[in-house]
Amino acid sequence: MEFLDLINIAGQAMELENPTSVAKIVTAGKYLGLREGSRVLDFGCGFAEPLVIWAEEFGITAVGVEVREYACTRARRKVAARGLADRIDIIRAAGEEYSTDGQQFDAVTCLGATFIWGGYQQTIHAMSRALRTGGRLGIGEQYWLSSSAPPIYVQHESSTYSEEELLQFTRTEGFDLERIVRASHEDWDAYEGGRWHGLIRWLEENPHHADRAQVIERLRSMQEEYLRYGREYLGWAIYVLAPSVI
Ligand SMILES: C[S@@+](CC[C@H](N)C(=O)[O-])C[C@H]1O[C@@H](n2cnc3c(N)ncnc32)[C@H](O)[C@@H]1O
Questions:
Q1: Domains (ranges, CATH) in the chain?
Q2: What's the pLDDT score for residue 1?
Q3: Ligand 1 binding pocket, CB closer than 6 Å
């Protein structure tokens, strides 16, 4: 079984694949200035839940870029079922290779996938090319809640920064940090628990599968990592960035 198959199994019962909620996605949409006719480009769009929420709440049109076939199929099915096929396009592509052909968007977002470009700062740099003058970037990113994480975990999460460092990267790239929509411990529990549930459900449904040991190993390591380290040391938030006026 490939790594992506394990991700698909873990996400099978989820719509949002981040420690956040429908209400917080709506709040982020407000902070991004979304309104009827706003054009949004979302990288690593997953099952397109944020785009569907913003289309229903604010009347946006959007392009979602997603590399995983399973996620694209689910996203397109959802978009069609909600009557939004004329508003939201799902493109199967690697975000780092996707070209907007000079198109500019009112908001460019990436929720939980800055690894596409190698980190938070590189993500601002890459996404700003597709942003219209005066538009907003929305980036969902994890950060260190505390500076006392054990060195072994710091090494494991080597592309995670403190919020102070994220602020400096934001300024260096010519943006100001305008808003924060922060995940609560409950959001984290719902996100992690959603993934455990997907894996446990698969184990219940596949009692004799040849790859069972791999799925059990994935479940156990995810649970141990979260309860030993992640819950105490990691935060997550959606940062809304405005082009600097200072
Ligand atoms: C943590 S999930 C977040 C999904 C979605 N943004 C959400 O909030 O529900 C990250 C997503 O990025 C996608 N992804 C990973 N690498 C990518 C790449 N190079 N280009 C585009 N999408 C990618 C994954 O398949 C996954 O769906």
A1: 12-146+158-183+234-243 (3.40.50.150)
A2: 86
A3: 16-18, 43-46, 49-50, 65-68, 71, 94-96, 111-113, 116
